[in-house]
Amino acid sequence: MKTLFFIIALLIFSNIYSQEITQPKIEVTGSAEMSIIPDQIELEIILSSNYKSAKHSMEEVEKKFFSVLEAHNIPKMAVSFISMDNPYYWYYWWWDYRHYYDTKTYKLKFDCAKYDLSFIKDFDTDFIRSLRITNSTHSKITEYRRQVKVEAIKAAKEKAQVLLEAIGQKCGRVLDVIEIQEPILNNNSWYGNYNNNYNNLSSNSVMYQPSTGSGSGESKSQVPSIKLRFEIKTKFEIL
How much is the pLDDT for 228? Predict the structure, then answer.
């Protein structure tokens, strides 16, 4: 009896395996992308008390820094202290007095719908050692990711249909779907001008960020856009 069950199971397995081998199929990859203007960003600002002309107190530097933010109605609660650097006395003599400095690092987090980066031009560049965007996101980033993924799998099916119609065949049911890992395409570093160095990738479908109705807030944004791009590898049967 066991031998009979083994033979039957072997025949069933062989039949399924042979169908899988002989089943004509087409494998295609669909891709889609969307560029999103962030509505939330974080800036890392490093203040230095070592002026080009003379060394000033950190208190004076901070006063100038916060006065610029106040002039642009940016609340103090948006600013967080991160760290402070004060070189040792021996380092001051070993290195060079022109390189001796006290620094303070702050993080500035704000809503792009309320503020833009125009305040940066009012900073005294002598006391700004470094300024860069460390993070940018959007409050609806999860929803946008879902939309791009859906568009990518639709693009895959459309590609399969177009290719098969060219040879008089039709696209059947989907046999396999694999989500390819999202590439890291965003460069958040900033100083002076914003530059996005995206990979030279061509997508089957290019989507546009849905309008929020705010109008000028989006069109005047100076923040580098976030590029979402997804690829979906699929396998369809050929009818």
Answer: 92
Q: What residue numbers bound the domain in which 198 lies?
A: 23-38+139-238
- Would you give the DSSP letter of residue 167? T
- Asked if the model's pLDDT at residue 50 lies above 90, the reply is no
Indicate the residue among 137, 169, 192 that finishes a domain.
Answer: 137
**Is residue 119 over pLDDT 70?**
yes
Task: Match 């997804």 to its residue by tokens.
Answer: 230
pLDDT in tens, 123-145: 888 888 888 888 999 999 999 99
Q: Which pair of structure tokens corresponds to residue 189?
A: 């570093």
What is the 3 state secondary structure string of 171-220?
EEEEEEEEEECCCCCCCCCCECECCCCCCCCCCCEEEECCCCCCCHHHHC
Question: In the chain, how many domains are there?
Answer: 2
